[in-house]
Each structure stands twice: as C-alpha cells, then as structure tokens.
C-alpha cells in the first residue's frame, strides 16, 4: 500500500553551537525515527529545492530577505530570531521554505502530504522572531493563490504559540484565512489578530483542547470554504514541552492531528502538514513526538486510499 508522501532534506539540521536552546538536530532525528517506524522509505521521500528569493519576497521585504541571505542582518535582528547566522543555517532556511512549498504542491496532487520541518509562524514581513526567519506558511499560501493553484487557503495553526507573523503578513489577503489555536499565556505576549484566534488557558488538557477544537473547527471550515489547507501540527502543546503551558499527552496530539486531517479529507480539501514547534531536552523523545503526525497522516492516507 502506498505511503503518505513526505518531504525532507538532510540540510535541515546544520551544526549550531552545542547547547544552543533551539533543538536543530530534531529534523534529522525525526527522519531517523520515521525510517525506523517504516513510515519514511526511499519510495515516499521527496527532496525539495531551496525556495527562491522571489518566492520568499511574496511574503517578506526584499531587503530583509537579501540581508539575511548575505549574513548582513544587524545583531539586534539576529537576537530577535534567536539563531546564529552561518552558511549552514542560511541554506537550511531557504531549503525548509522550499520544503513547505513542495509539500503544498504535492498535496494538490496527492491530497495529503507531510513535511519534516516548517511552521515558522513568528516570522514577520521585515524581521524574524522566535527561531523563525521566513514565514513558510505565508509564502506557500501566497504562491498557491497568486499562481492560481488554490483560490481559498485556510491555515490551521495548532502550535501552542500564536501564529502572529502569519496573521500580520496575511491580514489583508481576502482569500487566505488564518486560524490559530494557542495558549493565551504563551509567547507572543502582545497577540496579533488572526482571522480566527481560539485561545486556551494555561493548564488545559487534551479533553478541554478537543472540546474547543470540535466546537470551532467545523464552523471555521463552513465559514471559509477553503479549497486548500496548511496545517501546523506543533507539538509544544505537550505536557512535557519546556515552553508550552498546555498539558496534552501523546495520545491527545494523535487525536488532534487525526481530527484536523479528517476534517480536510471528509470535505475533499487537500492538506499540507508541517511540524511546527516542539521543545524537549530529550531530543529523541521530541523527534518521536513530532512523528506522531506523520504516523497519523500515513494511516489516514491509506484509509482514504489517496
Ligand atoms: Zn511554538
């Protein structure tokens, strides 16, 4: 039986200084985990090109894109991003946006596709923030709509942090709808206005989370009538996450991912999934946590015989 198409590139995990608080190796560990689980094989692996500066400039200031490309952002801007600049980090940044673009394009063809990176939703028009340089969700949504490949895109962002960059960049796009399920007490402390912001209180568990999601998501689908969905399946909603203030368990994340993906498939709407945030000192455990989404996607891909 065919497996869900997956998008990954070995450049996703460049070397950064040991002990840095961003878990850069998680992308490589996620690929290893999915290989060991039999979810990722040579047959369903798709390798992206780097996004072009022109594609990225659909959602960002061209000067910002160029300055990052050449390592010429100010120290203040790099501090806001929270990552060191190196050729490796720079290359992976363009490559990962290309990965989300490829994931979206493949989803148009296959109906359901998952990326092993992506979800850099704190990146704003002319500056980065919170480990995010360029906003792959905003770039992919605009590329699809401007190219006529989709006409109404819904971005469902379930990372524990609000997708503030996405909301601000896309605020005036009438054909792209931003929807963020996040924890009220998490970063960013000054929230943006998504088209739909669904806030959960600190300490909410899986039951409260799913009740809220089941209440709102079908309504949001009915209202927006998307013909394409980008799904950010951030796992920083997990109980053991070092940044997130929600208390979902592994099984709750699996239930959430299945619910969101089924909402799309039941309506015949193609869905491209990205991994979003996740922070745990135990990097292997973190990679396995991200891999929950790919396992669920693979099961549903086969169930719906896509
Ligand atoms: Zn996050």
From TrEMBL:
User: GO molecular function terms here?
Assistant: histone deacetylase activity; hydrolase activity
Q: Per UniProt, which keywords does this protein have?
A: Hydrolase
GO BP term (any one) = epigenetic regulation of gene expression
Q: Which InterPro entries match?
A: HDAC_classIV (IPR044150), HDACs (IPR000286), His_deacetylse_dom (IPR023801), His_deacetylse_dom_sf (IPR037138), Ureohydrolase_dom_sf (IPR023696)
Which residues does the UniProt record annotate as the domain Histone deacetylase? Answer: 20-286
Tell me where on the tree of life, at the top rank, the source sits: Bacteria
PANTHER family the record matches: HISTONE DEACETYLASE 12, HISTONE DEACETYLASE HDAC1-RELATED
| Family of the protein in this entry | Belongs to the histone deacetylase family.
Q: What is this protein called?
A: Deacetylases, including yeast histone deacetylase and acetoin utilization protein
From which organism does this entry originate? Hahella chejuensis (strain KCTC 2396)
Taxonomic placement:
Bacteria, Pseudomonadati, Pseudomonadota, Gammaproteobacteria, Oceanospirillales
């Amino acid at each position: 039986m065919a497996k869900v198409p997956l998008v990954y590139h070995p450049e996703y995990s460049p070397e950064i200084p040991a002990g840095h608080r961003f878990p850069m190796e998680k992308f490589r560990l996620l690929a290893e985990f999915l290989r060991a689980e039999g979810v990722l094989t040579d047959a369903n692996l798709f390798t992206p090109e780097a996004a072009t500066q022109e594609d990225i400039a659909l959602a960002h200031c061209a000067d910002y894109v160029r300055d990052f490309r050449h390592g010429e952002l100010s120290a203040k801007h790099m501090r806001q991003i929270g990552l060191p600049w190196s050729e490796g980090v720079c290359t992976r940044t363009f490559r990962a946006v290309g990965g989300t673009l490829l994931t979206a394009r493949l989803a148009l063809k296959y109906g359901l596709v998952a990326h092993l990176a992506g979800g850099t939703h704190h990146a704003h028009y002319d500056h980065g923030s919170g480990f995010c340089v360029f906003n792959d969700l905003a770039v992919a949504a605009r590329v699809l709509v401007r190219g006529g490949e989709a006409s109404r895109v819904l971005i469902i962002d379930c990372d524990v942090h609000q997708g503030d960059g996405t909301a601000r960049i896309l605020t005036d796009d009438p054909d792209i709808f931003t929807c963020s399920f996040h924890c009220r007490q998490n970063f960013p402390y000054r929230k943006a206005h998504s088209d739909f912001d669904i806030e959960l209180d600190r300490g909410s568990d899986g039951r409260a989370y799913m009740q809220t999601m089941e209440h709102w998501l079908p309504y949001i689908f009915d209202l927006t009538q998307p013909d394409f969905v980008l799904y950010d399946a951030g796992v920083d909603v997990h109980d053991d996450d070092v940044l997130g203030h929600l208390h979902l368990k592994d099984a709750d994340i699996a239930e959430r991912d299945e619910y969101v993906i089924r909402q799309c498939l039941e309506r015949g709407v193609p869905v491209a999934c990205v991994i979003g945030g996740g922070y745990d000192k135990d990097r292997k455990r973190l990679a396995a946590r991200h891999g929950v989404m790919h396992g669920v996607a693979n099961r549903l891909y086969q169930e719906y015989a896509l």
